[in-house]
Design a protein that fits this description.
- The protein is an alpha+beta fold and about 650 residues long.
- The protein is built from nine helices and 38 strands.
- The strands form nine sheets. Strands 1-2-3-4-6-5 form a six-stranded antiparallel sheet, with helices on one face. A five-stranded antiparallel sheet has the order 9-10-38-37-36, with no helix packed on it. Strands 19, 20, 21, 22 and 23 form a five-stranded antiparallel sheet that branches.
- A hairpin with a 5-residue loop joins strand 36 and strand 37.
- The longest helix is centred in the N-terminal third of the chain and has 20 residues.
- The radius of gyration is 26 Å and the shape is globular.
């Protein structure tokens, strides 16, 4: 069968049928004859009036953009699989096939969407655009037709006209790049598109989603251009709490337009007021820098010491105490951000100390909106803290008084609605963050104990690192991957020697990585099978993916932090001085934070690109590390039961 494209095969891809078309090309459903899967194939089509020289420029641009787009690995961006050149020299892009309608089709067929739904879609699109902008890629054609809805997932597609280096909006042959109703004023005036232009188009897209029509309309392209350049949009009537967001994004002057950091918290889901916390003897935080209530002191065992103690039957008696303190927390003015040049930055003191009153603060996690910090500690207590004031929000689970029943695991789902946490029996429970209630407990048919957990970026899977005692009291570990929606076990990896302190999903949620002895194991989440191994040459407990998905950082007990290239599976560099602990990339990829369990600096901040240390945070040691979503705060939990906060 031959499609409208005039071809039945393009490379190894068999054309099945037309999905859609636009001004610059058509998208076809196709079948990958080698891998046995359906894909989407985009055909680039140029106007006949373009001369040969400009046609070659377009093809070169497409080649360049394909290489750039291939680096964009994010659940909100359609993945680019391949690039194929046709017999006539035209490039074809092979992409992930996303099931579901476009936002444009949903608006036309179902009408405007509720503001809450639009806010959720906007948040996902904003994260996708932020990832592209971090790679120097401007989309330039953000519009409802380029947003695909796959269940609750919003996927931005069609980076085919994206700009890498400020290309003009109109070519020398008069070909318009972009869709008039969603083009920013600066694009309409023929100026280069920027990240700010994408944010204007995001605002126009969200306006259309909630109002049912774009902010500017007209009978011709020219009329629309004049309206965008000279008129104000009609005030939204159905946007409710989104009205201010739309106004901020649709500012004509790019300098006055809201930034991604401005918009992200405004798109955060509304949370019901938290019930009043009721820990013993807790008072309201009077002002920054003041002490609340002193908690009892504890002494305890480390993670590995605790397990060894269980194996040997060692009884450790600790004082029981549930009160805690908040010391010296300051939510004050902005501090210098991590920059390309680090030598001129002043020393960074700890901005706050949250005292759990226990022997060790094991697990830490920021909520996706950055408003909450979850902590798990040696007293088996699970808490939520307000990151603005440093005050406790809620105690979800209280101290058991049993030193052998500490908690280590906390992880927020990407939408912030679920907190996965270890209970006193080392099982994983799902907590509803809004109601502060347990939704379910993930059972373990083999009686293994959970020691770590990570949600996939798309929120569909939860990877849980578990362990059990092998022969001669050795530690054997593996990963169990659960389906979040059904609460069912999807698959389990083979047993390996040692802890799996920190498994990690790639940004596109398709690859699971974890430490296995002296290697990094890679698993295909969709196929549920091992997809490769990276030989690290050292013990690996914890791993972390860079936001672009191209780099894996790994470390282990008493070993250096190192980075490896995922595509080639070769080492990039060792981070001199980086030692064992846990790892966390900032969401924008500017830095990597590592905790150190044995002396030195509590947390170390690295430039992952150069491998150089940016700075040391605090002294002593830290069992855990977390980076806030805006990359402005780093938290570290240590063996003294205190959570240290540093503001970057």
């Amino acid at each position: 069968m031959r499609g409208e494209s005039g071809v039945s095969m393009i490379g190894r891809y068999r054309i099945l049928g037309l999905i859609g078309r636009g001004g610059m090309g058509r998208v076809w459903r196709a079948f990958d004859t080698e891998l046995g899967r359906e894909v989407a194939v985009k055909e680039l089509r140029l106007p006949d009036e373009i001369d040969d020289a400009e046609r070659r420029q377009w093809y070169a641009r497409a080649e360049r953009e394909a290489r750039a787009a291939a680096r964009l690995r994010h659940p909100g961006i359609v993945a680019l699989h391949d690039r194929v050149t046709g017999e006539d020299g035209r490039p074809w892009l092979v992409m992930e096939l996303v099931a579901g309608r476009s936002l444009d089709a949903v608006i036309r067929e179902d009408g405007p969407l509720p503001p809450e739904r639009v806010a959720d879609l906007g948040r996902q699109m904003l994260d996708a655009l932020t990832t592209a902008h971090a790679h120097g890629i401007v989309h330039r054609d953000v519009k409802p037709a380029n947003v695909l809805l796959d269940g609750d997932r919003a996927v931005l597609t069609d980076f085919g006209i994206a700009a890498l280096d400020g290309d003009a909006t109109i070519t020398k042959s008069g070909v318009l790049i972009g869709t008039p109703a969603y083009m920013a004023p600066e694009q309409v005036r023929g100026r280069p598109a920027t990240a700010a232009s994408d944010l204007w188009s995001l605002g126009a897209t969200l306006y259309a989603a909630v109002e049912g029509r774009p902010p500017f309309e007209g009978p011709t392209h020219g009329a629309i251009f004049v309206a965008i350049a000279t008129e104000e949009p009609s005030p939204p009537e159905k946007a409710g709490p989104l009205a201010d967001v739309l106004t901020a994004l649709l500012q004509k002057d790019p300098e006055s337009r809201a930034t991604a950091d401005d918009v992200r918290p405004r798109l955060a889901p509304a949370r019901p007021a938290a019930p009043p916390a009721a820990p013993p003897r807790t008072e309201v935080l009077p002002s920054p820098g003041k002490t609340l209530v002193a908690g009892s002191e504890r002494s305890g065992l480390g993670r590995r010491g605790r397990v060894a103690g269980i194996a040997a039957g060692v009884a450790v008696v600790l004082a029981v105490g549930t009160a805690f303190t908040v010391k010296g927390f300051s939510g004050g003015g902005a501090k210098p951000r991590v920059a390309a040049s680090h030598s001129s930055l002043p020393p960074l003191p700890a901005d706050g100390i949250l005292d759990t009153g226990t022997a060790a603060a094991w697990g830490l996690a920021f909520s996706p909106d950055g408003k909450l910090l979850a902590s798990a500690d040696d007293g088996s207590t699970l808490r939520l803290w307000d990151t603005t004031t440093g005050a406790p929000v809620a105690t979800l689970a209280h101290d058991t008084g049993d030193s052998e029943k500490s908690r280590h695991v906390v992880a927020f789902s990407p939408d912030g609605k679920i907190l996965a946490a270890e209970n006193a029996e080392s099982q994983i429970q799902f907590w509803d963050v809004a109601t502060r209630r347990v939704i379910t407990t993930l059972g373990d048919p083999d009686g293994e104990s959970a020691v770590s957990a990570a949600f996939s970026p798309d929120g569909r899977s939860l990877a849980v690192g578990v362990f059990r005692f092998g022969k001669n009291v050795s530690i054997d570990g593996r990963v169990r991957v659960w389906d979040v929606a059904s609460r069912r076990l999807s698959f389990t990896t083979p047993m390996t020697n040692g802890f799996i302190d920190e498994p990690a999903f790639s940004p596109d949620s398709r690859t699971l990585a974890y430490g296995a002895g002296k290697s990094i194991r890679l698993w295909d989440v969709v196929q549920r099978k091992e997809s490769g191994t990276i030989e690290a040459g050292r013990s690996v407990d914890a791993v972390a993916f860079s936001p672009d998905g191209g780099t894996i950082a790994a470390t282990g007990p008493k070993t250096q932090v190192g980075t490896w290239d995922l595509a080639s599976r070769t080492k990039r560099r060792d981070l001199a001085g980086g030692t064992s602990g846990r790892l966390a990339f900032s969401r924008d990829g500017r830095f990597l934070a590592s905790s150190a369990e044995e002396g030195g600096s509590a947390v170390q901040i690295w430039d992952p690109g150069t491998g150089t240390k940016i700075r040391d945070l605090g002294g002593g040691s830290s069992f855990s590390v977390a980076v806030s979503p805006d990359a402005k705060v780093v938290a570290g939990g240590g063996p003294d039961g205190k959570i240290h906060l540093w503001r970057l």
